[in-house]
Design goal:
The chain is 51% helix and 12% strand. The chain contains 16 helices and eight strands. Helix 4 links the parallel strand 4 and strand 5.
Length: 335
């Protein structure tokens, strides 16, 4: 049995706390939000995660030090926009070599750091790993079979994390390609906004398939240019996570995209979804990375234009369709 602290008590943190407790570990959760603490202590569930009951064995703490001290692993489960500020709060209590598993998905707009890089920037003595893949909190919390991947700088750390999370309903693979895992996880949220926009416009399966296929092509182009492995984007945190996020109504990014496609302005969309829409935060960073590495990412460009420049979604789709003729795989020669 391991002692595990889950830092962040939203839907994903709660679902993982349930999983880890069911695996027999001693779990302590922390939240900065008193409303979350009260719900989890009194009702043992979140309003946003109906039907997922937090085991009585899981402690819920408002004291960050108590949640962190003497832990084998810390799971950092706050939204990407709050990773740096939360890591900064953790500085006072972190021990050297502490394993931190980041489960947030995003790229910091100002620095273009992935979330593990942000954590390492704030907590340089920590051993930072990442966990990602096609895994909605609503399903993980209910024990629906799920498969994900853990990335770490050493095989030893990856296998430690793998052993803590692995169960009969949660299969865990390991990989050394941390940045590739994180880029796939962050940028698929932007593509999922595009998929939702297409749904909101009333388009069909053909359009969805095109966005998923060309979306993973854009992500792979950027990722390999940044030194990541192409195989990562063909795996769980690439095409796997992209498919589930573009196709499911559990996806807040897809739901936000649907509302955008129906003509709602961004501020109203955020209010309607009532949860952090990670793709909105990652969209500008993705566009900056595309420019920095000189990579064509037309879907990312059009999503940014809709979000921040007031472009009509139907016009954005038309501009994508009317781009210059292309070869699907330019490195494949004719016979």
């Amino acid at each position: 049995m391991a002692k595990i602290g889950v830092i962040g008590a939203g839907s994903w943190g709660t679902a993982l706390a349930v999983l880890l407790a069911n695996n027999g570990h001693e779990v302590t959760m922390w939240s900065k939000l008193q409303t979350e603490i009260d719900m989890l202590k009194n009702d043992r569930q979140l309003a946003s995660l109906e039907g997922v009951i937090l085991p009585e064995s899981v402690a819920v703490e408002a004291d960050l030090q108590k949640a962190m001290e003497d832990k084998d692993v810390l799971v950092l489960a706050v939204a990407s926009a709050y990773i740096r500020s939360t890591a900064n709060l953790m500085k006072e209590f972190i021990k050297d070599g502490q394993i931190i598993v980041n489960v947030a998905k995003g790229v910091e707009e100002e620095t273009l750091y992935t979330m593990s890089e942000v954590i390492s920037d704030e907590l340089p003595t920590a051993d930072v790993a990442v966990l990602s893949g096609p895994s909605h909190a609503e399903e993980v919390g209910k024990g629906i079979p799920t498969t994900i991947v853990v990335g770490a700088t050493t095989r030893e750390t990856a296998e430690i994390v793998q052993s803590y999370f692995m169960s009969k309903v949660f299969r865990v693979y390991i990989s050394p390609d941390i940045k590739g895992i994180e880029l796939g996880a962050a940028l698929k949220n932007v593509i999922a906004l595009a998929a939702g926009i297409a749904d909101g416009l009333g388009y069909g399966d053909n359009t969805k398939a095109a966005l998923i296929t060309r979306g993973i092509a854009e992500i792979s182009r950027l990722g390999t240019k940044m030194g990541c492995k192409a195989e990562t984007f063909a795996g769980l945190s690439g095409i796997g996570d992209l498919i589930v996020t573009c196709a499911s109504m559990h996806s807040r990014n897809r739901r936000a995209g649907i509302l955008l496609g129906k003509g709602l302005p961004l501020d109203e969309v955020i209010k309607e979804v009532k949860m952090v829409v990670e793709g909105v935060y990652s969209a500008k960073a993705a566009l900056k990375l595309a420019k920095e590495y000189d990579v064509e990412m037309p879907i990312i460009e059009q999503v940014n234009a809709i979000l921040f420049d007031g472009k009509a979604p139907a016009d954005a789709v038309m501009d994508l369709m009317l781009r210059d003729k292309r070869h699907e795989n330019a490195d494949q020669p004719w016979e």
